[in-house]
Amino acid sequence: MSCLICGDNLVKTYGKGDAAVSALRGVDISIEAGEFIGIMGESGSGKSTLLSILGALNTPTAGKYVVDEIDVYRLSGDQRADFRREFLGYVFQTFFLMPYLTLSENVMLPLATAKLTSKRKKDMAEAALDRVGLSGKGDRLPSQVSGGEQERAALARAIVNEPPILLADEPTGNLDSGTSGRIMHLLRELNRSGMTVVMVTHSEECSRYAERILRLADGRFFPQEGEPGDGKASWKGNGGRPAECALLETDLSSGPVG
Amino acid sequence: MTLRGIAFRNLKRRKAKALFVLCGVTISVATVVALITLGLAVSDAITHNLEKFGANILVVPKTENLSLSYGGLTLGGVSFQMEQIRQSDLNRVSEIENSANVAAVGPMVLGVVEVNRTRVLLAGVDFETVNILKPWWKVRGALPQPGGILLGGEAGRVLGNSVGESVDIGGRRFTVSGILEPTGSQDDNLMFTHLEEAQDVLGMEGRVSMVEIAALCKDCPIGDMVLQLSRVLPGANVMAIQQVVKNRMETLRHFRNFSLAVSAVVLLVGTLLVLVTIMGGVRERTSEIGIFRAIGFRRLHVVRIVLMEAGVLSFLGGLFGYALGWAITRAVLPFFAEGHGLVVPVNAVIAGASLALALFMGLSAGVYPAVLAARMDPSDSLRSL
Prior knowledge:
The complex is a heterodimer.
Chain A: E1 5-14, E2 21-31, E3 36-41, H1 47-54, E4 62-67, E5 70-71, H2 77-87, E6 88-91, H3 103-108, H4 118-131, H5 147-159, E7 165-169, H6 177-192, E8 196-201, H7 204-207, E9 212-217, E10 220-221, H8 248-253
Parallel strand pairs in A: 3-8, 3-9, 6-7, 7-8
Antiparallel strand pairs in A: 1-2, 1-4, 4-5, 9-10
Helix pairs in contact in A: 4-5, 5-6
Chain B: H1 3-13, H2 15-51, E1 57-61, E2 69-70, E3 73-74, E4 85-86, E5 102-115, E6 118-125, H3 130-133, E7 139-141, E8 148-151, H4 153-159, E9 166-169, E10 172-180, E11 190-194, H5 195-202, E12 207-208, E13 210-215, H6 222-232, E14 236-240, H7 242-284, H8 286-294, H9 299-336, H10 348-375, H11 378-383
């Protein structure tokens, strides 16, 4: 198996008996190191459930999930927590920064349990903030910066300990189009630096940053895997949703994706 | 940023909840400290007062006869005509192990004399110990000086003497210095004079008929003192007046039990209050805990954060609680115990115990919410975002 992230026949069912709801109905997924994957699908298609399983947060009802030859769901609870800390970075749609901590302290959270000196932690947080373009804003509280800056701080938190995999759940869902473009640009930069990025998104425009798009419907992948912008995907978009990633074309024109 | 830092910052952020927990612990600890401290102070005061409440050990000569007196009626025989105790032997009372607990030793010589053709019991006593051994005495007139005599209320009535008159006993004249108000005891029928003068009149120099001892051994059973006295007075029969002793001890025991029971209830209620508050805080932080877990915090890390917060508040609650409890005790003690020099010392043991109690209370109340927080499924927690 050459894949970094390998999911084999992943099934997730919530509830039991008549009330059982199948969120995933046997999904196979194979992602190689350094890929930028977009997972798309309508609400209820199972994409968030898939991301939570890939994030070692949600034990599948059936199937096997292996990352870097580690059978993730055979790990104990503590081992899985260690796995999340070492292998994964998360970016959430609602940022979820702790409002009582400064941006710098928020970025340091994944290092809270690490045996590092306070200075080393601060240096790492500063480097991460610098990488997302928030130099000099580490002392501010989340309420004192814009939504885009909060998202960038959340991104800095996700990458502060240099995880090999970045999972992003609708990273631009709460941002205006201009800011979304900058976030996507950052994700692409991180991917180019070697990080494997798996992103769930509703936005066709944002998905064009991905090298490969996996489309989910009713808990299954569509048979075809569309290339970005190939127009062949049967997924019909999200109707009247405002176009996100409006700066996409500008961004894309600055260099080829993938 | 460390787990400790997260805990402290969260306390600062949720000031109202932190204050509520702090108040719960402080009030609980203060109540317990006040009750215990007050209990100790009042116990001391009661003990001190009970020590003044008459004799509780009786020393009588050994005899093979049974008393023929009951309820003030003597049915033949001569109850008091028995062997006597040598007065010099009483010095040995000070040699017993618990001699420090002996408040007063009152030797008494008893004998029948005739006054105005009436047979009366004459008692020679040490009037210096009367205040301790017979604090209920109320004297019309005064306690006798040498050559004086004190009449029991009934004796005064029967003999028809009043204060200032003279009484002729065995060829010696005594002046009535006072008459006892009725006590309801055998004392009402007696005449009291100084020990040496009674011994002289009765021809019993150097001997006594019985000894009353006032003792309260707070930290040891009174039975021990009886045994110790029996050893030093082998010719005498030493008896504890059990009812008096038991009543004294029972009073103290009831007070202590009451304090402990109230303390237990207050602690239980306080602990539940803290538990509910911490639990509410944990539920509010469901998504925050989800994030912690998602970024790699182990369950134990989450437990440590919650318990650190509970621990900090408990420690402060213990400190404030002890100070408040001590202040309350100081303020209310005068209402519970009479006496001069009532003091409430700062007790290091109680202060330490308060801190330990507060920490136990806070941490035990924090364990369940902490475990609940740690057991939260991160994916469920994040779904609440």
